[in-house]
Amino acid sequence: MIPGESFVSIENRMQSVGLALEELLVTAQKQDCLTVGIYESAKLLNADPDSVVLCVLAADDVDDVALQIHFTLLQSFCCDSSITILRVLGVQRLQQLLGAMDARNEEEHGDLHCMLVTNPQADHCRLQEVGTYCQESRRLDQWVPELALQER
């Protein structure tokens, strides 16, 4: 917590960043600048890491060991490549925002557990707001910033 910052202002900041992330992901999806799924994300990171501006790792179940191993590897790669990382709680909210995926896509892409935003122009002000939140969190010794999306 930043000295002098109240709990209410932190709560408001989290909601604001959550909304910014939601708008950014929807815009990136519409502009075909969103890569979804652990496997697809790993392929893109291997082929063209310089095109990635944000990595979103989403999971509500922290007890899924296999998923946590994938996240650890993705986080390490993103850190080495200077890619902003954000962990998100609220997979159901992401499904509402980005639309249901068919069963084949869900199997192939690993659902919405990993998403990469690949266009630096994708709703730039929202990307900047999310990036600023991540930088501030890292300054407060939170290596991988976390954000809980609000159900609606």
Q: Can you tell me about this structure?
A:
- With 152 residues, the protein is α/β, with parallel strands linked by helices.
- 53% of the residues lie in helices and 14% in strands.
- The chain contains six helices and five strands; from the N terminus they run H-E-H-E-H-E-H-H-E-H-E.
- A five-stranded mixed sheet has the order 1-4-2-3-5, sandwiched between helices.
- Helix 3 links the parallel strand 2 and strand 3.
- Helix 1 packs across helix 6.
- The longest helix is centred in the first third of the chain and has 24 residues.
- The two termini are 27 Å apart.
Compile the SSE list and pairings.
Elements: H1 7-30, E1 34-36, H2 38-47, E2 54-58, H3 65-80, E3 84-89, H4 91-98, H5 103-109, E4 114-117, H6 124-139, E5 146-148
Helix pairs in contact: 1-6
What do the pLDDT scores average to?
Answer: 83
Helix content: 40-55%
N-to-C SSE string, H for helix and E for strand: HEHEHEHHEHE
Q: Mind describing the biggest β-sheet?
A: 5 strands, mixed
Helix/strand class? alpha/beta
Radius of gyration: 15 Å
The percentage of residues in β strands lies in: 5-15%
Query: Biggest sheet: strands side by side, in what order?
Result: 1-4-2-3-5
- Supply the number of helical segments: 6
Task: Give a quick rundown of the structure.
With 152 residues, this protein is an alpha/beta fold.
Descriptors for this entry?
152 residues, alpha/beta, five-stranded mixed beta sheet, 6 helices
